[in-house]
Amino acid sequence: MKSIKENHPLDIATQLIRKEDHYLGHTSDHYANMVGPFGGITAATMLNAVLQHTEHIGDPVSLTINYAAPVSDGSFEIKATPARTNRATQHWFIELFQDDEIVITGTAVFAKRRETWSSTELKFPAVPNPEEAYPISSKGLPSWVRQYDIKIIQGLPSAFSHHVQTEVPSSTTLQWIHDEPKRNIDFLSLTAICDAFFPRIYVRRKQIVPIGTISLTIYFHVDSKQLQTYGDEVVLGHATANQFHNGFFDQTAEIWSPKGDLLATSSQFVYYKE
């Protein structure tokens, strides 16, 4: 068995140690954000508490994480509780504690998938190949950005641009992305990647303002067997906002394989401060 030192930074960041009826974890400097850890790595760690639980069945089909308060740097506890197990689905409550206070809450649904008629109505975006796009510089950005190779095709944050405009007409971003260093994609990495977009308000506006995700929901459209076939391939992320209004905006996103397979969709609600 590999030691934890030999593992990928994502595996180190999401590592949990079982203790009685809960798990112990610790934040990672590799995935630090402007305040506390990158929300995607927190969501992946919460999911890992269910994946490691001896009572879990099947694969995750949905995950909702509610960020009730910022996670402080340091240790934390996670408790995952199976609420109900049906013939094909299983429902979970997940809670993250620091100093005996709830900081993050979540729910997850796992399922045993079976082969049925299937169809994808969303269309794979028309984009250049990953080799034709250029990676962004992580200089001056939070350390979580350095854990990814991100090539933005459309929607470079206006806040990072040297142009003089104060606002652009669209918050849409298209980007190729993979873990850095490369890592085979699984539900943990896919969860984190669903949140690996710069805030939509940074794309629309020149100004950088304080923001924080309030709630993130991810729907997984593949099972573990399918995920294993993708290896460490780059994936395409497509994110946009519908409305910015009185201190809150939404973000919807799609994650695609380079061959056009829809891997996951997500929706989140974000607080911002002028």
TrEMBL record:
Q: Where is the Acyl-CoA thioesterase-like N-terminal HotDog domain?
A: 33-111
**Where do the Acyl-CoA thioesterase-like C-terminal domain residues begin and end?**
135-271
The leader peptide range reads: none
Gene3D superfamilies, sorted = Acyl-CoA thioesterase, double hotdog domain
User: InterPro entries in the record, alphabetically?
Assistant: ACOT8-like_C, Acyl-CoA_hotdog, HotDog_dom_sf, Sec_Metab_Biosynth-Assoc, TesB_ACOT8-like_N
Check the record and name the SUPFAM superfamilies matching this protein. Answer: Thioesterase/thiol ester dehydrase-isomerase
Q: Which domain of life is it from?
A: Bacteria
Q: Which PANTHER family match?
A: CHROMOSOME 23, WHOLE GENOME SHOTGUN SEQUENCE (PTHR38110), THIOESTERASE DOMAIN-CONTAINING PROTEIN (PTHR38110:SF1)
Under which name does UniProt file this protein? Thioesterase family protein
The organism of origin for this protein: Staphylococcus succinus
Q: What is the lineage of its organism?
A: Bacteria, Bacillati, Bacillota, Bacilli, Bacillales
